[in-house]
Protein: Glutamyl-tRNA(Gln) amidotransferase subunit A, mitochondrial
Amino acid sequence: MLKGYVPPYNATVVQRLLDQGAVLMGKTNLDEFAMGSGSTDGVFGPVKNPWSYSKQYREKRKQKSHGENEDSNWLITGGSSGGSAAAVSAFTCFAALGSDTGGSTRNPAAHCGIVGFKPSYGLVSRHGLIPLVNSMDVPGILTRCVDDAATVLGVLAGHDPKDSTTIQDPGKPFMLSSLTDVSKLCIGIPKEYLVPELSSEVRSFWSKAANLFESEGAKVIEVSLPHTSYSIVCYHVLCTSEVASNMARFDGLEYGHRCDIDVSTEAMYAATRREGFNDVVRGRILAGNFFLLKENYANYFIKAQKVRRLIANDFVNVFNSGVDVLLTPTTLSEAVPYLEFIKEDNRTRSAQDDIFTQAVNMAGLPAVSVPVALSNQGLPVGLQFIGRAFCDQQLLTVAKWFE
Ligand code: GLN
Structure:
């Protein structure tokens, strides 16, 4: 729909970087309209994970593949902001921006071995960010270390009259001190995040990280986020409903693609949207319109909003009980090969992969994925820290200690 489109104004995040002298190198690839978890559905084709070409991974694959075409083994970056993660991971730039509605910054960061930071909702302006779910979207920051993420946050954060959800006083600057003592910290481990789909390797890195905090004197406790199991379904209803409404602006009249059909305005709208959106986008528009039908609105949309509040309250309760940050996996496993990812049933898996990230967006909290170690296959694995709303600085300070 927006292929070749050049916007007439800069997003606030872009303008703030330019104002500080940043050199903008270009736009990066992503899933169409940021819908996806693989960066396999972009209009420019799928994004390849730079780790596909690491020596260690190549060697391991060779042992396993018995001579099958090596090039078919390349790995997905995760998504939807996979192009940004690949660009940083391949050392082509200092930092990249992504968007994070349900995990799209943290997921590809974990798969590409870099830091992916989703700020608190309201800390960074969304003006100029194409909306997916207005109440969950946040511009995300991808860097190679936590300090760099804090530097970029310092440039981006702050009130913007063009985004009424931004807070007045973001508490800048975001300078991270080096934490030397974690003994006053309380780290929560949500028991519901120990899902059967979690790979044993990620699970073991997760528990090693918890042990590290404990051995350095932090209090590490098991906590409960009881509504976690509803989060994927709840997100789906809210996301598609907002998508149905947000995508209405793409009608071929004012900007973007317009089809050649001119028999009637309705026929032009329909053909433009059929041609301009991929299956994923069209599917979400249809699902969202179904949930918003007069007879379904109360049963789906309103109910999902109530569940969202319960999910958000789970976090409030945990933080009120004295927990400073939560420690969780970012994804279920390391990056998978493209051919494996695009198999039908793995699409469902890709939705489940957001289990550790989506609830955070529904609660508006800050969260950061940091690389923890390499798997047996020689691929990066990330762990996620989740903080209290607007305690982004504290969250990043803990993540910096850990990285
Ligand atoms: N994977 C989720 C989705 O497709 C999240 C996307 C995002 O954060 N932009 O909706």
About this structure: Strands lie at 95-100, 115-118, 138-143, 186-190, 219-223, 325-329, 367-374, 380-387. The first strand starts at residue 95 and ends at 100. The chain has one domain: 12-234+299-402.
